[in-house]
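hi support,

uploading two proteins for the ticket. first:
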Amino acid sequence: MKIKFPQKYRLGQLLYNKKFTVVLSVVLAFALWLGISMTENPIRQQTFSDLSALVTLDGTAAADLGLGIVSDVASQRFSVTISGPNYIVSSLKAEDFSLSASTVEINSAGTYNLKLAASNNSNKSGFTISKITPSTIDVTVDFIDTKEFTLVPKLIGVSAAEGLVAETPVISDSQQNTLTIRGPRSTIDKIASVASFKEVNETLSTSQTFDADVVLYDSNDKVLYRYTSDGTVYDANDNIITNSYLSLTFTNVKVTQPISKRKTVVCKPVFNNLPAGLAVDDIRYSLNQNKVTIIGTPEIVDKIENISLSAIDFRNVSTKAVHFEVSAILPDGVKFLESIENVFTVDIDASQYAEVTLDIKNIRCLGLNSELKAKTDKQIKNVKLCGPAKIIKNLKASDLYAVVDLTDKTAGDYTVEVIIKSDVYDEVWQIGTYSTSITLY
């Protein structure tokens, strides 16, 4: 049986269809071009430019020796020329190639001229890499060292308002007093000092904190590099550089400029455990330094009228013990203007005093729980006492008693300190400390 196509699908009719003939022409033209290209196989060359090369010491003996690349490999650019059939070459891109250089023979510091090799990164074949321009790359390697530096604060052009003092600036964060730098040995060896630098040029009336640059200096105090807080690096001529090949633990540093006030004040000795009848003004003494000049935060210094010295326990004062070394008690933020030792001497005039040794039998208990009873030693022997000579001359054991504080103590055996007192002579004091055994039941 003969199959008949509908009238609209007959070839004769299609040849007179304009749309069909246009499509057919395009298909035939492409087929003709492809056939010619594949049959004739013309060879074409093409050059790809602005390629970078990958150079690394990873996994090499150089890396094990502590060497690292310290030259700008990434900025060097190369071109690759390839040849092959036109239909293959025209389909390639610069991303289809990669350049590299072998570093396996590097074993010491220096500059090496390494031969480049090109690799095909694509899944395309049928072409050859005929040329790399330039064919080599210069690579400098050096030993990589790590070194710590003390960060020195430098604020330039700072002055203090009238009546105030601009002290030495300090690093605001004490944990940034030390900076660690890692980089090429040839560069590390040139660094002699590191400073946190800021040009202020201001007159200050209060302490202020500034963002400072980190500056590396050589042995002649000349700038090697300057790092701003945002990590930008400048060379000695203040030009921005892309890489110093140095790694710093931090570049964001703040420096505080203390503005202080100075004041001269008197020194005042302090005595503890004075007998009730003896006032400080009654004690004759001399100080090796009666006045000192202090410097500190203005609002604190303004409130200081005198400087107290560490307390002298009057129980240690006798006709033989009259010389005492004490230290000044300074508020936070205040120090001595001059570089003096924080040691003062107090000498007590004991010419008006005398001593006596007695056995104290009268022992009084304070703070004893009402439900308990106390049993103490019968007496406290060889108690040394000191006081005005005219009183000591007539002093008797019956004029004195020992006080024992038993507050909050429960039943049991204790050894407790006693305080010697007198209801008759309140200018007398004990020399040293004494104790007694006591049983609470």
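and the second one:
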Amino acid sequence: MKKFSLFAIMMIALGGLAHAASEAAESARAAAQQYGAAVRNCDMLWAVDSMYPPLRRTYADSLASRSREAETARARRVQGIARENVIEARARMAANDKALRAQYARMGEQMKQSGMQVESYTVGAATAEYVVTPPMAAVSQVRKDTSGRVRAENIGNTQERSRIVVLPTTLIVSVPAANGGRTRMERRSYVYAVRDEVIVDKSISRGTVLNKWYFIDGNTDVNTLRSFFPNLPLYLELPGTGDRILR
């Protein structure tokens, strides 16, 4: 009889899938290679425009709330002291998003001005694939429980479906060195490719296009990722990461 490690059994029980040759994994990898073209050109605007929209809104709101005035206004809205109509809310979110794009554009320019050159950016085969449920879908399912109790078997058991594919990446860059030459460095990391596949409740907009791949950088805290997908497994199959100087 074939024996499985404890880790493998846990991954199977939690729903982690590592079929790198699946249609979804190959589709995600192809989309990520387009992301790589932008990375090679230090095009940070492409990076923000391909970001998973709910996370993009979170970053935009976080950037905007750094001023005391914005933080005070946000606190008043949360407390119910001040209210926004739909037009005002959309205008605020548009302004926040514009500020976020401007910040990313500056980052790209700073990279170019520093003399950094991206020699290559490659995307490897997927290391893991997860089918997950957005948080509002889980809430909707619980509300449908007419018994008035939250049944464990109902949590996460909805028609709503999103997919996350973990893709390893290898970035090789060169930067000016003190001796007048250039120092080359390799960075191994990964990105999360995310797409919403089934959206039943359209009353709350996520800002996503159905079946379109978006990306979340591997540096993103996994708990932030779980705030969008609560039933993401506890133990993720992530590729090795690290930097090294190339000779």
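thanks. also noticed: Confidence is low (pLDDT under 50) at residues 1-20, 137-157.
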